Amino acid sequence: MKQFLIVLTVFICGFRTAAQSPEDSVKSVINTMFTAMKNADVSTLKSCFTDSVIFQTIRRDGKVVNEDVNEFLDNISRETPGNADERIRFDVVKTDGPLAIAWTPYEFYYKGKYSHCGVDSYQLVRVNGEWKIQYLIDTRRKECK
């Protein structure tokens, strides 16, 4: 009987840890993206995006610039693992059914040295039960404090 209770407790605890809130699932996809970027793992990185993902950045002069996702993936594929290290913090994550947003201030390090900082803003959609990044726009500056 004692062994049965131990097995049952482990089983129940396993379900609790496995069940993620929608917000935690969104965070997981974004964290996976940055881990893949740091590891130069383009296959995993690409799996975080929808087929029609849009990347944009806002320049210092306020102009919004489109970025080529395939060029980004190609650049990451040529990096040595560990070179591209974006460190984020989740300020806001919201979901409504199949739509999610996330706001993440970040600091970017290249080859171990601070490069720049800013904020990433994401729109995610749930596709076949999985969160995917549909839209990413960011700011970039040298000083964030």
How would you summarize the topology of this molecule?
Elements: H1 2-18, H2 22-38, H3 42-47, E1 49-58, E2 64-67, H4 69-77, E3 84-88, E4 92-96, E5 99-110, E6 113-127, E7 130-139
Parallel strand pairs: 1-7
Antiparallel strand pairs: 1-2, 3-5, 4-5, 5-6, 6-7
Largest sheet: 7 strands, mixed
- Straight-line N-to-C gap: 58 Å
The radius of gyration over CA amounts to 18 Å
Task: Report the mean per-residue pLDDT as an integer.
Answer: 90
**Which class of secondary structure composition applies to the elements?**
alpha+beta
Which regions contain 5 or more consecutive residues with pLDDT less than 50?
A: 4-17
Strand content: 35-45%
- Count of helix runs: 4
What does this structure look like?
The chain is an alpha+beta fold and 145 residues long. It has a single domain (21-139), classed as Nuclear Transport Factor 2, Chain: A, CATH 3.10.450.50. Helices cover 34% and strands 42% of the residues. Strands 1, 2, 3, 4, 5, 6 and 7 form a 7-stranded mixed sheet that branches.
Offer a concise description of the structure.
With 145 residues, the protein is of the alpha+beta class. Helices cover 34% and strands 42% of the residues.
